[in-house]
Amino acid sequence: MSSATETIEGFVKSDYKYGFITDIEAESAPPGLNEDTIRFISAKKKEPAFMLEWRLKAYHHWLTMKVPTWPKVAYPPVDFQDIVYYSAPKKAGDGPKSLDEVDPKLLETYEKLGIPLHERAKLAGVAVDAVFDSVSVGTTYKETLAEKGIIFCSMSEAIAEHPELVKRYLGSVVPHTDNFYAALNSAVFSDGSFVYIPKGVRCPMELSTYFRINAAKSGQFERTLIIAEEDSYVSYLEGCTAPMRDENQLHAAVVELVVMDRGEIKYSTVQNWYPGDEDGKGGIYNFVTKRGLCKGQESKISWTQVETGSAVTWKYPSCILQGDRSVGEFYSVALTNNRQQADTGTKMVHMGKDTRSTIVSKGISAGRGQNSYRGLVQVRKSASRARNFSQCDSLLIGDQCGAHTFPYIEVRNTSSSIEHEATTSKIGEDQIFYCNQRGISTQDAVNMIVNGFCKEVFRELPMEFAMEAQKLLGVSLEGSVG
Amino acid sequence: MTTETLPIRPEDPFLEALQSKDPSSEEAQTWLVPIRQAGIAAYSQNGLPTTAHEDWRFTSLANLREVTFDLSLAPSTLSAMELESLPDPLQGKESIRLVLVDGQLDEGLSSRSLLPQGITLMSMKEAIQSHQTSIKAHLGQYTYGNDSPFAALNSALFCDGVYLHLPAGVELEIPIHIMHVTSDSSQGRVSLARNFFHLEQRASATVLETFCGPNKGAYLTSPTLECRVEDQAKLEHIKIQDESPEAFHMACVYASIDREAHFKSHYLSLGGKLSRNHIRTHLNGEGLCCTLNGLYLAQGHQVMDQHMVVDHAKPHTESHEYFNGILDDQSRGVFHGRIHVRQIAQKTDAKQTNKNLLLSEEAIADTKPQLEIYADDVRCTHGATIGQLDEEAIWYLRSRGIPRATARRMLVHAFAGEIIDRIDHPCIRESLDQLIWDQLEKLPHFHTHTSTDPS
After folding, report:
1. Does A431 touch chain B (CB under 8 A)?
2. Of residues B376, B384, B450, nearest to A420 (C-beta)
3. Is B367 on the interface with A (CB under 8 A)?
4. What is the complex's ipTM, to 2 decimals?
5. Residues A289-325 pLDDT 10s
6. Which of A328, A472, B309, B453 could hold A357 in an S-S bridge, CB 3.0 to 4.6 Å?
7. Number of structural domains found in chain B
8. Per-residue confidence at A80, pLDDT binned at 50, 70, 90?
9. How far is the C-alpha of B209 from the C-alpha of B187, rounded, in Å?
10. Whole-prediction pTM value?
């Protein structure tokens, strides 16, 4: 057992390999938040008047709100006046017209991140929108998508070119009054991705966005909006990294999904923000609001997330199952190591008849990590014959960590059937021994067991992501069995 | 999780009365003064909670707030005849009976003839004076600093209750029955019984507590029970709540359990407009076992809330919670259970289940089964279900020639029987089995479901 512990510790200590800083001149707003900051952001982005109005409304509402204290995470209060709300890589001249004109240093960054941004994108068949600090730097594969009528662009572009869509859907799932961080995001969001899949179109490739926080002291507030019309389908991937810095940086994103009749959105996230060092110094505060609305009948939203990064995570990708026979799914692997804290889970709100939801949450705690699952399954009176199955399993590695489960189940009719199950366990000495006995090293055994533990979630991820997630988990856990 | 202090509602029914109390001059026993003061302070901090408090999210006290309570009402009396007319699950069986009327012990109605020597079973009012030394070290020590406003209210104002003490090695086979009766129908009566059960090493006892109110008034019973179960002792506690339909029943049970001890507690909720069991068990020794077992049957507009935290503070402890709810009409069942495993509590084995059966379209179930685990070598599971009878099980029975209605009855009885079967004491189990059977048969939608059944 002791040798196992040692290997695991060695394993846990492996470095964060995305911690580089790209030296690019950036154009920023001064730190602090007031009406002028918002006007500055809005003006910089040359937004129409309705957007500025919307932002200011959110800002004024935000001022009346208090920082939520109910999540099971502890961190020093964030000074909202010390954050740079807008930081954009400085453009030469009028800015890039195509990918070739994008600052090569930026492309290098993405190269380092392993993102197939340009040619490789085509080979990989992935269309990428990359958001650097707060600004979208280039969207690949746009024309191919345009042929099908699919809009995949940055949020700024969408505001400029498709204001009617933005006006109609922005804030329709996550209103600016929703919560503290959603209000903040609504006021200051700088960019993000916008996807529109027209009626009857099946998006031919995976759409993907990479987010990166680069500038010091800056916060990232991106906003993603995906709309899937009737009979359409899209699979969207999101990945994130940040440099290693001593101070904590704030990431407060909002993601909204809207699905019409028989449409489907599959949203996958591999979140690997800088988690801080072993003593919990630095790292990203990841306070994200993600919510999908299954508006039409037989629509479907599937969230898959692999959360390995961030110092503090506070995130509940949710589904509002409004349309009859709509389906919500949530698959999650959350890993906390060292002093990371995660309070994550989902909300499934059943409103339509015969709606179904599945929740599979796998929490892994190692080191001094604290991992909480918090989930709500709400069945409204109108949701006859709703069905939910929830399974929350926790795996503990080491004796300093914690795993917590806080499910909320509210049922308002009798024809529904709700099941919740949760287990907490550790990697058994007998399991390790069994593997050792068959010539498998302790480290490999841990990896195998953890991967087996997460299998149900990984198989929901697109192929490339599944591979990455497995590797990521292996790296994050290196050396941690007791 | 930080508990936010929310402003106290101006119409708080007890705040003013409490704050005008001055225990240092009013309380005759000086050692009780700090307990009283702590109760007043704890209550004054939040007053009666609203649904904005996480622990009261699903249980509104709005109805309670509307009643004008009179804390100065003197306890009334109950005649022997009236007492006989009350349901007694141990009728005709051997038992030691204590009767509390409006929270105060009535010696005339109680019968302790079967109480063996060496065991102390007496009024709390009396014990505070005569058994000061043995109570002083314990009273108020197990309430987690009055973590419920009703425990705080009780600490501040209780004047009587029951004190039970079993010395080391004493095993009591005859069950003790404590009957709590709220007697008259005057509005706004508050009964605050304070009970303390102390079982020394290897002692064992069975205590049945029943709560009833034969009259229809809107009253509040808020008993607080503290238990100390020392090494290898065994306590089986059964609580039946069958208050009058307008009554509020807000009970708090605190148990501190030591090495290799057994604490088995059963909760049956049948009556009251709004009732809540606030249970906290402190698992404070290796090799112990704690079982919390409950059944709630609600109909009409009843609200029944079960709120518990099992605190695993030492390694090698075992806990089980089983709560089943049968909800009819527009009733509401609330379950909050938390298994808290401290970092040192390795090898914890904890299990928690909450099952809810909804018999009508309007019934509501809210459940929050939670795990909070800081140790790695543990086995903790929890599960919760809300739903109807299993159609396949009904089909199975029907395919064997059993009519649908009978099949349905069989399954509901079995659902309740699961809980009753866990009671160890044979006499009590039998009479409760009968009691629950009769209660179930009386439920409005017991035989047919409100929605159109397919046959």
Report:
1. no
2. B384
3. yes
4. 0.71
5. 999 999 999 999 999 988 887 888 889 999 999 999 9
6. A328
7. 1
8. confident
9. 24
10. 0.80
